[in-house]
Amino acid sequence: MQAVTEGLTIAFDHANGDISFVSHAHSDHLNGLKNKKQKKLIASDETFELGNLYGERVSLKSVKTFPAGHILGARQILIEEDGLRTVYTGDICTHNTVITKGAEILSCDRLIIDATYGNPAYMFPPYEEVCSDIAKWFKMNLDLGNNVIIGAYELGKAQELIKILNTCAAIIPIVTEKIDHFSSIYQKYGVNLERIKVGTDEAEEVMNRPFAAIVPMRQAKRYFAARLSEAFGRKTLSSISTGWSINFRYDVDKAFPLSDHCDFPALKEYIEASGAKQLEFLQGDGKYLNPILNAI
Ligand SMILES: [Zn+2]
Description:
The chain has about 300 residues and is an alpha/beta fold. It has helices spanning about 45-50, 125-145, 155-170, 175-190, 200-205, 220-230, 265-275, 290-295; strands at about 1-5, 10, 20, 40, 55, 65, 75-80, 85-90, 110-115, 145-150, 175, 195, 210-215, 235-240, 255, 280. It contains 8 helices and 16 strands. The longest helix is centred in the middle third of the chain and has 17 residues, at about 125-145. Zinc ion binds near residues 70 and 91. Zinc ion binds next to loops.
């Protein structure tokens, strides 16, 4: 996906254009851009750092970026030329989270929007309720003498979980090296995250008692929890944090629908409020969202 402005092609989250706009640092948005020095880029400071980007930073008169929620540094882009406004949202979240402010809805003529949850089945419970459910379940199990692990994407969701556990449950979780690395960049941008890196003396000490840990999604499984139960001689429960858990079953003891994307009603609201006459979708075909445009 792309747009042309000032005679230049702006590539949205890929390398095939004169300039690439990198909406955020998730790997599926860094197509061909990582570690490349010659590329001209539009991206936030946070995205440069989280995504290990080395391109040349450029700015154009017709281009503005706005926060997109989702993860640290995520931006949506507005291109305005000859009175025509194009918006590409990247992955977007319009509700506030413990880390990011909800994205502003931008008015435009052409809208390219994240349709990850572009299906009416995806309506998330209120954010505060999900946070409090996570905090309660963790506290209850640690009090019962169990270990608890939760699966999360190591950039974005993991940092959100650290913050939820810190502020809603006064829990300092053990995290992987990769989660710790991304967390230190969050920290640099003013997000305080209390965590303990696995493999350190401090982690060894903490693991003598019931502990909470954030693990990569692939490890959030009952068999992995069973291995930990055996290794620590203490029951270990597994959980997962993803919006997909609204509709899919995971091999875990508990699933939390914590999402850093818009759910279906929020996408619908964005589309309607933007006033867009032309719609395109990323991360999904948007077949349930397209009729919204026709009905306006
Ligand atoms: Zn993303």
